[in-house]
Amino acid sequence: MTEQYVFYFAPHQDDELLNFGAAITQDIDAGNQVFCVLCTDGSASGARQLIGNGETCHLHQGKHPAGMEVPAFVAARDKEFIGSCSAMGLTDDRILLPANRARDGALTPEHAAELMLDATRGLPKTRVTVKTLLPVAGVDQNPDHTAVGTAARSLWEGGAFAGLTLFYEPIHLDRGLLEGREMAVLRPQNEAQTARLLAAAGVYGRWEPETGRYAVGIHSVYDEFAAFVIAPHSLQGFAEQK
Ligand SMILES: [Zn+2]
Ligand SMILES: [Zn+2]
Question: What spacing in Å lies between the alpha carbon of 1 and ligand 1's midpoint?
Answer without folding.
Answer: 34
